């Protein structure tokens, strides 16, 4: 697993950088990377971020993001999901 690419994907999701997310997924970045960030995956971040879009969530899910992944506090992406993409995640889980 390429930890640097995982970190970059995590940051792209945190910043709602769709171009970065696409590029890193094409480069094979580990889609469920959490590093030392409390178990938060890029999908958790894309789902939580006010600037996140359903397109970001969909790209991560299609790349294999675990929709039931839990943070260290037991939260899944659904716990932090704004209503606008909740339906997309529910359809995947």
Automatic annotation (TrEMBL):
Family annotation (PROSITE patterns): ANK_REP_REGION (PS50297), ANK_REPEAT (PS50088)
Top-level taxon in the UniProt lineage: Eukaryota
A Pfam family the protein falls into: Ank_2
Key words, A-Z: ANK repeat, Repeat
SMART domains: ANK
ANK repeats: 38-72
Entries under InterPro entries matching the protein: Ankyrin_rpt, Ankyrin_rpt-contain_sf
Protein name (Swiss-Prot/TrEMBL): Uncharacterized protein
Organism in which the protein naturally occurs: Chromera velia CCMP2878
